[in-house]
Amino acid sequence: MIFNQDENQKDTSFISEKIKQRPINKKKLIRRTIITVSLALVFGLVACLTFLLLQPLLSDKLYPESQPEPVTFPEQPASDELTPEEMFADDNEIAASEAMSNAENQKNQIDQAIASYSYSQSDYGKLMASLKLVSDEASKSIVRVSGVKNDNSLFTDSIENSGSSGVIIENKNSTLFILAPHSALKDAKKIRITFCDNTYTEETELCLVDSITNLCVISVKLSDLQEHTKNSITTSELGSSNSVNLTGVPVIALGSPIGIQNSVSYGIITSDTKPLDLADSNYKLITTDMSGSSNGSGVLVGLDGQVLGIIDMHYAPDDLPNNICAIAITEIKPLLADLSNKKARAHFGIHGTTVPLDKQKSNNIPAGAYVTSTEMNSPAMKSGIQSGDIITKIGSDSITSFNQFVDKLAEYSPDDIITVTVMRESPNSYIELSPIKIKLESATHD
Predict the structure, then answer these.
(1) C-alpha span between 393 and 171 (Å, rounded)
(2) Given this structure, which CATH class describes domain 346-445?
(3) Residues 147, 159 contacting (CB under 8 angstroms)
(4) Which helix (H) or strand (E) holds 200?
(5) Hey, where are the domains in the chain?
(6) Which of 341, 349, 333, 340 is nearest to 384 (CA)?
(7) Do the beta carbons of residue 159 and residue 148 sit within 8 Å?
(8) CA 259 to chain centre
(9) How confident is the model at residue 250 (pLDDT cuts 50, 70, 90)?
(10) How far is CA 252 from CA 267, 268, 367, in A?
């Protein structure tokens, strides 16, 4: 077949095409580039963190280190010690240090001023005047209690004994209650109460007398007093004799501490922990450095005017017979309440103490009220209780100390019959006796 050359050429030119390059989307390219770079950075960061975290663990496993030497701090000589300022680490501690330093400087300045101050009679007078203000205010509650008995004198119908000092302890239901030693009322037909304004009344009533302490409470109706007397007197405030250590505390003795009514003494407490060896009680004795009369009476008050003790010279130590001493007020408050309320108190009749815990363990002694002695003809003696016995129960209630025994006994009345459990020492140990029934007697009378 023969083709025409011109036709071939014409056909070839007909099928030829011109190919153009596709345009580039710049926005998409930039976005993909940013995504790629970001992923690369994230993967690189994760890889770095993974390496940093795992590298120490892998190193410890592959190349373990030897144990370090123990840390010790050699003693510093005094010259190498840090000063307090160098030891503070932050601003708060530095501020606290500066405050302490300022306070110390102020204290030093005050001490120096006091040391350099020359005291005069005027300063001493001011000090004593402030004490007198306390004693004058507290003395408004002090009274003189005396017994009046008939006498055949041509000039008088009656005679009054020397009396003792008492104190108004309560003003309730328009009645004054006065605490006083009963010895002032021996053989008296009437009781005379003389108040701080020197007025007196014989319209009195004896509430109850405690035969153990020889204290009594006397009541007086306010309606029987003159208006001037009512405005002059006050009721004493009974303080606490065991809230703090009273040894060394300044006190004022009021009443008749030197045997003369309205006398006053100033001093300090020298001891406040000695127990009074009285039956069925846990009273304490307060001793002072003040000299007084063997017949002294009245009260001890603190610088706040509160009563801390009732003066009773019968319990003065043998080697200090004239030093003023008193029955601590805290332990006798329940007694004062019972006497004022005419509530008779039960009498058991033992002197005792609490066995210390270490003695209980070391000597195998049971806990309880340890009997040191028994009162003659008391219910305890009549029932066979003797010194050395330990009371461990009253009824079904356990007794672990002598104080607990005293508190429990206060719940009973005269003529009550109680059952006590007693442990008694045997050659090898303590044995429990059969329960003992005891009929209580009265420790009070009118």
Answers:
(1) 39
(2) mainly beta
(3) no
(4) strand 200-201
(5) 138-232, 250-334, 346-445
(6) 349
(7) yes
(8) 34
(9) very high
(10) 6, 8, 40
Tens digit of each residue's pLDDT (9 = 90 or more) over 1-34: 444 445 444 454 445 555 555 565 666 667 777 7
Instruction: Confirm if 184 and 157 have CB atoms less than 8 A apart.
Output: no
Homologous superfamily, domain 250-334: Trypsin-like serine proteases (2.40.10.10)
* Predicted pLDDT of residue 428: 84
Q: Which two tokens stand for residue 216?
A: 């009594």
364: left (phi over 0), alpha (psi -120 to 50) or beta: left
Token reading at 148: 């009046």
Residues 6+ apart with CB under 8 A from 162: 146, 184
Per CATH, which fold does 138-232 belong to? Answer: Thrombin, subunit H (2.40.10)
State both tokens at 278.
Answer: 């009285």
Say which amino acid occupies 180. A
Measured on CA atoms in the order 41, 47, 53, 56, is the torsion positive or negative? negative
Residue 54 DSSP SS3: helix
Q: What pLDDT is stored for residue 12 in this prediction?
A: 47
Q: Minimal CA–CA distance to 166: which of 18, 340, 28?
A: 340
Beta-carbon contacts of 380 under 8 Å, excluding residues fewer than 6 positions away, are: 348, 349, 350, 371, 374, 438
Cα 200 to Cα 146, 192, 262, 263, 363: the distances in Å are: 11, 7, 15, 19, 59
CB atoms near residue 332 (< 10 Å):
24
Q: How far apart are CA 435 and CA 394, in angstroms?
A: 9
Angle at 229 between CA 226 and CA 233, to 5 degrees: 150
The helices-and-strands tally (H runs, E runs) of the chain is 10, 24
Provide CB contacts within 8 A for 344, sequence distance 6+. Answer: 208, 338, 413, 414, 442, 443, 444
Asked if the domains 138-232 and 250-334 are classified in one and the same CATH topology, the answer is yes
